[in-house]
C-alpha cells in the first residue's frame, strides 16, 4: 500500500512539474512570418519579417490596387471566447496595435533613407515606420499602445523586413 502511495505522489509531482514548466517556459517575443503573394503594378512580391508572437494576418485587410497594396497584421484576440459584455466589463479587449505593410506608390513625407522613424501620437499610441526602395518601394508601420512592448521590439521588427519579387 505504501508503495502505491509513493508511486501516486511521484506521478503527481511529475505532472505538477510539467504543468509549471509549460506555463513558465519563456516563449520568444518575435517569430518569422511570410506574407502571401502580393501583386502591385503587375509584379508579385512576398514580404518576410519578424512579427510579435501570437499576431495574425488580418486577411480582409489586404487590398491590391494597380499602383499599391496594403497588408495588415494584428494581435490575436486572446479573450475572444468570452461574451462581449464580460470582456468589456473586465477590460480584456485586444491591444490597440498593428503592423501595416505597404507596397508601391510613395507617401509625400516618406524619407528617402532606410532609417527607422518613431514617435508618439497625441492619443498615446507609440508608432514607428521604415521605408525601403528595393526591389520596390515599401513602408512598414508598427503601432502599439504598450510602450514597454513597443520599445523592446520595434527596431528588430522594422529592420527585419525583406521584400522579394516572386517570379512566375
Description:
The protein is α+β, with helices and mostly antiparallel strands. The protein has one domain: Jelly Rolls, CATH 2.60.120. The protein has helices at residues 2-24, 84-89, 147-159, and strands at 30-34, 38-40, 43-52, 55-57, 63-64, 68-75, 97-104, 116-120, 126-132, 138-144, 162-165. Strands 4, 5, 6, 7, 8, 9 and 10 form a 7-stranded antiparallel sheet that branches. Strands 1, 2, 3 and 11 form a 4-stranded antiparallel sheet that branches. A hairpin with a 2-residue loop joins β2 (38-40) and β3.
Précis, in short:
The chain is 25% helix and 37% strand. With 168 residues, it is α+β, with helices and mostly antiparallel strands. It has a single domain, classed as Jelly Rolls, CATH 2.60.120.
Amino acid at each position: 500500500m505504501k508503495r502505491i502511495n509513493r508511486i501516486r505522489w511521484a506521478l503527481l509531482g511529475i505532472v505538477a512539474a510539467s504543468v509549471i514548466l509549460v506555463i513558465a517556459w519563456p516563449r520568444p517575443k518575435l517569430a518569422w512570418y511570410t506574407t502571401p503573394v502580393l501583386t502591385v503594378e503587375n509584379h508579385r512580391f512576398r514580404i518576410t519579417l519578424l512579427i510579435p508572437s501570437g499576431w495574425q494576418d488580418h486577411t480582409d485587410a489586404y487590398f491590391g490596387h494597380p499602383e499599391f497594396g496594403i497588408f495588415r497584421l494584428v494581435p490575436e484576440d486572446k479573450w475572444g471566447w468570452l461574451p462581449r459584455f464580460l470582456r468589456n466589463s473586465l477590460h480584456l479587449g485586444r491591444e490597440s496595435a498593428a503592423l501595416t505593410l505597404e507596397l508601391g506608390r510613395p507617401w509625400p513625407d516618406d524619407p528617402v533613407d532606410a532609417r527607422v522613424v518613431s514617435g508618439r501620437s497625441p492619443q498615446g499610441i507609440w508608432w514607428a515606420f521604415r521605408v525601403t526602395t528595393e526591389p520596390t518601394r515599401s513602408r512598414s508601420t508598427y503601432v502599439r499602445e504598450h510602450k514597454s512592448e513597443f520599445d523592446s521590439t520595434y527596431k528588430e521588427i522594422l529592420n527585419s523586413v525583406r521584400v522579394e519579387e516572386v517570379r512566375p
